[in-house]
Amino acid sequence: MKVIIYSAKDFEMPYLERANNKKHQLTFVSEALNSKTAIKAVGYDAVSIFSRDEATIITLDKLKDFGIKYIALRSAGYDNVNLITAKRLNIKVANAPNYSPFAIAEHAVSLLLALNRKLMESNRRAEHFNFDLNHLIGYDLNNKTVGIIGTGRIGSIMAKIMHGFGCNLLGVDIKKNKELEDTYGLTYVSMKTLCEQADIISIHVPLNGDTHYLINEALIEKMKKGVTIINTARGAVINTEDIIKGLENETIGALGIDVYENEHYLFFKDHSNEILKDEYIIKLNAMPNVLIAGHHAFLTEEALTNIAEIMIYNIDCWNENKDTENELTQTSNEATTT
Ligand code: NAI
Fold this sequence. Notes:
By secondary structure, this protein is an alpha/beta fold. It has helices at residues 13-20, 57-65, 83-88, 101-116, 119-127, 153-164, 178-184, 191-197, 217-220, 240-248, 263-266, 279-286, 301-319, and strands at residues 2-5, 25-28, 46-49, 70-73, 92-94, 145-149, 168-172, 187-188, 200-203, 227-231, 252-257, 290-292. Strand 7 (168-172), helix 7 (178-184) and strand 8 (187-188) form a beta-alpha-beta unit. InterPro entries: D-isomer_2_OHA_DH_cat_dom, D-isomer_DH_CS, D-isomer_DH_NAD-bd, D-LDH-like, NAD(P)-bd_dom_sf.
């Protein structure tokens, strides 16, 4: 099969080539998929995309006209694909679920620890041989209450890790995970209760019509003063403007994000020589209690290997006219946002 890989990054190419083992003809392009770059897919059978690519109605219409039959995601999240349109056009879409929930959950924990123990500030000081300890006080995680929003693959690993730290666990999900309740003492509560009681909130729900701006001013007002919020899911699950207000009025004590509402034009590129006009990211960047990572929670050896293998497996199945269990239907996400 001829596959065009959009948003291809140097670091992932060796993993994809290895998983492919010369079975399919892979072409790597650095541009993201959108309505303008869709033209590059002429002559291919399948496109492979990542989280910043946009498979919107107009883009999918073009892909269909260009003869594309399959879309293989190199991500678990698929909020960037309009599945209803893909189904109407008979374009099959498959994601790469469960490639390494550990990579993402461990990244969430590293954001939490770096913020709580003020490691960025400590390292900045050490660079100047300043080993003063003032203003570096953190808090023990032991006995703190952690609220996990979304207790699926990643959220459940997060819950288990935080249980290991001796934390009390609260959860919000539309489906309960019995193992977390029975073995790890997680209690499912309402969003309101989670926000009122959690010292730390970690977000692991997909972005869809129900979760868009799930964390907003009304809920932030209910949160414990000084709460730490970690978001490794998708940027628009939190309302960035409201979260900035919460940081400014000190309701939120610390924020760690691997994803950002307006990341599509910003992340995965070097903007260090530009004057950015995005006021949110400028404000967040200026706050000492905010830690921003550029969507690299998935960047581990194991995750990259698995993403590549799952993607090639999906292509293999389609090439042999077989279904893949990773295929997404419109009911996978009825409230898709794009
Ligand atoms: P998952 O599907 O295993 O878990 C998601 C959980 O959220 C499920 O238990 C589901 O029932 C729950 N949920 C869905 N809608 C909800 C709602 N309205 N309210 C409450 N709970 C709801 O997904 P997984 O693998 O844990 O991934 C979660 C998200 O993490 C992905 O959708 C993706 O956006 C993000 N992600 C981010 C990565 C990164 O590099 N930063 C990498 C991989 C995933």
